Task: structure prediction
Amino acid sequence: MKLKLTAFAAAAMLASGASWADMQAAQKWVDQEFQPSTLSKQQQLEEMKWFIAAADKLKAKGVKEISVVSETIDTHVYESKTLAKAFTEITGITVRHDLIQEGDVVEKLQTSMQSGKSIYDGWISDSDLIGTHYRYGAIEPLSDYMNGKGKEFTNPNLDLKDFIGTSFTTAPDGKLYQLPDQQFANLYWFRADWFERQDLKDKFKAKYGYDLGVPVNWSAYEDIANFFTNDVKEIDGKKVYGHMDYGKKDPSLGWRFTDAWLSMAGTADKGIPNGLPVDEWGIRVANDKCTPVGASVSRGGATNSPAAVYALTKYVDWMKKYAPPQANGMTFSEAGPVPGQGEIAQQIFWYTAFTAPMTKAAAVINQDGTPKWRMAPGPHGPYWKDGMQNGYQDVGSWTFFKSTPDDRKAAAWLYAQFVNAKTTSLKKSIVGVTFVRDSDIRHEYFTKNAAKYGGLIEFYRSPARVAWTPTGTNVPDYPKLAQLWWKNVATAVTGEKTPQAAMDTLAEEMDQVMARLERAGMKNCAPKLNPKGDPNKYLSDTGAPWKKLANEKPKGETIAYDKLLQAWKEGRVK
Result:
């Protein structure tokens, strides 16, 4: 049975020249799928009318189909299976939205950069590549595009100021290179029901002299990990562990570290979104805040500094002592669901991308649908100082090559805006539990349902969220440098090398790659390495690379979760 157009939809059709079928399709999707929304239904139809008219211009030029790609997470599955179909039915332009592993996205994007010809019309790739995009000049700066060739295909209701992640996709030249599509942070995850048990609280305080609660520093995290693994041991007849991680020699092992593990320890300099002059990868840039000059301490970097070695040491020790034995052989995707099985007390480095499936994990959900777990800011290591990046936030973002034919690029740009339009974005946020718009985060839906998300809504509404940031612009070539991390970290996991030796090799290999980039030349801010010198010349107690601390385990410090949550609600970080 065909839907009857509302009076508004019929009027919109007549005013825009849109076909009856297109507006009927738009109304069907608005009524049946795109609810709730921050827009009224009339406003949604008005926005859809604009998309139809813009697509008609491209169809007149022969554009019938486009192909785009993203990694496989819940948000992108929804885009590929639902929103791509909606876009096709409403605009008449068919979208093939491929879903592949994140490592494959980076590899294919690198291949396209090297060949000068894009494999896809549009890409959702991490904003971690912002430094790469800026330096090579192969990616279309969206600031230029929206004011130039793409102006007539840019939604007047796009409202860039409503996007919470554009600072992460803006290069040193001040231009926006990517449009955020989804965001998730790495936060601390814990079993609130266990932490609230009076018998466990009493036992913990008797042993450690302070309250069981959300760990503020790594000392407390370690104490809690030891407590649940070796003192509590079992709950309800089931073995429990005080920590969870993954350690298989696999590209995803690199994300565990490049996704700001070193910054959580305090390796970098102060600075938001990333430390300057030394960032969370340990790469130092020159006074121009753009030219990389080295990763090793001997060149002024911090990749093999005492803080970085400490970070790797704790990662290896904790996994071996406090995590399930199988964690050592798991990848990122294999380890993700484990806390939902009910054996894990806490996880220091938990991606909120797993929130959607975790709300359905029966072992950690109460009968009323609320979670037994909560999430909170991750604790920091002893080298960390106020003003430093707290942790990592993934910002998967729409990216377009200059080499893509104009008409196909315009159609892919339309689709990118469609899946993030105010008409569709709130429903997408509900399905995938990732966010890009402030207006969606503050919508009444999430106010009413905040209890189901274990603190995630309060976190994203608080000022704390700005201290969780992606890889920054110090990294000159993300694909080339990222692949060095997992191979070197793995040697410490297996015991083949000490943490110091593993980080020494990593820092040296990073410098070698940057030296090659220096010789090859880049369009903007190519590396120009400092000469090697005495590491002691750079080690300091006023800036990175930081001198080794005499005591790397200060007294544990915790905070009551309710107190932390109240601070967020009042607009404070903590």
